What does this fold into?
Amino acid sequence: SNFADGECCPMLCQPRAMTKQSADALAAYGVRCKVRCAAPPCPPPQQVSTPACAAGKCVIKTMSRD
It folds into this structure.
C-alpha cells in the first residue's frame, strides 16, 4: 500500500507490504476523508516491487528495472 498510517491520501513513494485486509482498511479510510489527493512528488521507480510471503509475513521483493 502507498498509504501511511493515519493518512487520507496515498503519500508513500515506495509501497509497503501489509495484509490485504489492512490495505483495504487504509484505502477505505482514505475514501471517508473526502480530501482531494495530489500525487506525491516521487522520482521514477528504479526497481520493480512485487508482494511476496516470507516466513509467514507479507514482504516486498524488489528487482532492478534493468
